[in-house]
């Protein structure tokens, strides 16, 4: 039987490797962000990806990395497709090539509540992830997909409006939370030029004390809030 602490211990082990070896191997000027076993890395131009990959795979023989490079300014990560522009990164929903859009049919035996919840879930993901210029294409894809599954057009419209009118959606549009440790902050985000107005950072120290930092523009990450301090504004 698996120990209930296994997942926690694995994450702690990976964090130690990242702090002691991986981030050092990647070098300065690199952004390293990991979620469980998925990692996205931004490296300076001219860096040898093959050399970095070889060095990463020599750290632990049981942890072997593979790499997927950006193609035509696009890179998938956690079912999100990132578009690299000249000034910012845009996001859309990513679907694997084997995706068939085979979901619950409208004439199946599932209850109406279940079918409505499926639609709402797809629209909620779309509104949370997609930038405005990519939003219409994704909405059209959802409507066409469920039209083929015999869902009434009115139900799709109702579900879309329900998500847009939902309070949590409106708050999500104006507030983005980043969960960071002081180590991550110093090693990764020191290279960020700015954080948009209204965005938030949530910093966690070793005792899991939570700090909220509301930043209109962050130009320096040298000063962290003192222990017990509830919040600090960075100009």
Quick summary:
The protein is 39% helix and 19% strand.
Distance between the termini: 51 Å
Order of helices and strands: HEEHEEEHHHHEHEEE
Total beta strand runs: 9
Number of domains: 3
Q: Which regions contain 5 or more consecutive residues with pLDDT less than 50?
A: 175-235
What is the helix tally? 7
Estimate the strand proportion. Answer: 15-25%
Global shape: elongated
Structural class: alpha/beta
Report the major sheet. Answer: 4 strands, mixed
Strand order of the largest sheet: 6-7-8-9
User: Roughly how much helix do the residues carry, as a percent range?
Assistant: 25-40%
How large, in whole angstroms, is the Cα Rg?
21 Å
Can you lay out the helices and strands and say which pair or pack?
Layout: H1 6-26, E1 31-35, E2 38-42, H2 49-57, E3 74-77, E4 80-84, E5 89-93, H3 112-129, H4 132-148, H5 153-165, H6 167-174, E6 177-180, H7 182-187, E7 199-204, E8 210-215, E9 231-234
Helix pairs in contact: 3-4, 3-5
């Amino acid at each position: 039987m698996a120990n209930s602490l296994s997942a926690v211990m694995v994450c702690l082990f990976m964090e130690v490797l990242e702090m002691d070896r991986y981030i050092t191997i990647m070098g300065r000027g690199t952004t390293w962000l990991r979620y469980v076993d998925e990692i996205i890395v931004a490296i300076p131009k001219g860096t040898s990806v093959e050399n970095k990959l070889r060095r990463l795979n020599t750290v632990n023989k049981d942890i072997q990395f593979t790499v997927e490079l950006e193609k035509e300014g696009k890179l998938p990560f956690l079912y999100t497709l990132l578009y690299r522009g000249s000034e910012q990164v845009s996001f859309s929903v990513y679907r694997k090539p084997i995706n068939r859009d085979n979901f619950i049919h409208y004439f199946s035996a599932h209850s109406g509540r279940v079918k409505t919840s499926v639609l709402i879930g797809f629209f909620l993901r779309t509104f949370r992830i997609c930038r405005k210029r990519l939003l219409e294409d994704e909405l059209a894809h959802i409507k066409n997909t469920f039209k083929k599954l015999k869902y009434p057009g009115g139900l799709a419209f109702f579900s879309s409006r329900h998500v847009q009118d939902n309070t949590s959606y409106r708050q999500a549009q104006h507030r983005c939370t980043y969960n960071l440790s002081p180590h991550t902050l110093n090693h990764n985000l020191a290279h960020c030029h700015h954080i948009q107005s209204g965005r938030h950072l949530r910093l966690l120290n070793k005792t899991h004390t939570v700090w909220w930092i509301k930043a209109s523009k962050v130009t320096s990450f040298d000063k962290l809030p003192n222990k017990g301090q509830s919040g600090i504004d960075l100009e």
